[in-house]
Amino acid sequence: VLRPYQARAVEWTFDTWSTLRASGRRTSVVVQLPTGGGKTPMQAALVERAHARGWTAAIMAPGVDLCRQLRARVGCEVHLTTTLAARFKAGRELPSADVWLVDEARCITSAGVSPVVLALQAGGARFAFFDATPETASGMGLGAWADDLRQGPSVKELVAAGHLVPSRVFSAEQGKG
Q1: pTM of the predicted protein model
Q2: Residues of the chain with pLDDT under 50
């Protein structure tokens, strides 16, 4: 069962895809949610809803461990971003899906992965990019790949609602001086 903010984000994603498609724009959105906010259950709900519409769905993510975790929890194919990039660079066919979900979405800004996403978008695939911080260390956002953004509740709001526990930050500087 999704939390209310998760359910609203799933609904927003489908509504926004429809609005973007109707206006002739690419159907790609960013969903920003803090770590621990429940991006994986939202991805599972999006896959389930896509399948209910007769659409195929797939996920791409950086990191073997993350792909393994997603395969265990979400009912669709999960692909490692570097594998997709290597396939594309070698001129091999990419997997086909009507809906692509991208976990840790800032990975799409890399020179190897960006052409994969652009090619899949050109083929008409819908995208939802999930990230806690959808911006690279150099400040590059995802605006070149997505046309809308949904920001979920902040860490403070999730703690206040009891969805996350308060954190304590420790540093090497504490205790000095």
Answers
A1: 0.92
A2: none
